[in-house]
Amino acid sequence: QVQLVESGGGLVQPGGSLRLSCVVSGFRLDYFAVGWFRQAPGKEREGVACATRADSKYYIDSVKGRFAISRNSAGDTVYLQMNNLKPADTGVYYCKMLEYWGQGTQVTVSS
Known about the structure:
The protein is mostly beta strands. The chain contains no helices and 11 strands.
C-alpha cells in the first residue's frame, strides 16, 4: 500500500526558512515524478514544484529562486526547502506521486 506522510511545517516569520519532508512507502520515489502542492485558505490547490523521473525540476514563478525540491538517495523521501518565505506562501502543503496524496502539513508565514 502506498502512503505519503508530510512533516516539517510550522509558523515562521517572513524571510525565514522551512524544510518540508514527505516520506513515501510502498514505492520508490526515484521511479516516478513527484510534486509539491499547496492550498491557501479560500483558494484552489496549486502545484508549486515537481521533479521528474529524470530529476528535471520545475517551479511556479512565485517560488523560483526561493524553493528547491529534492529526493534522497534511498528513494523514500522528497524534500521542499523553502527560503525567504513570504506571507503569500501560507497554506497547507501536500506531496503527490501518481494518484497518491499525503495528508498535508500547515505552513504559516506571519510576523
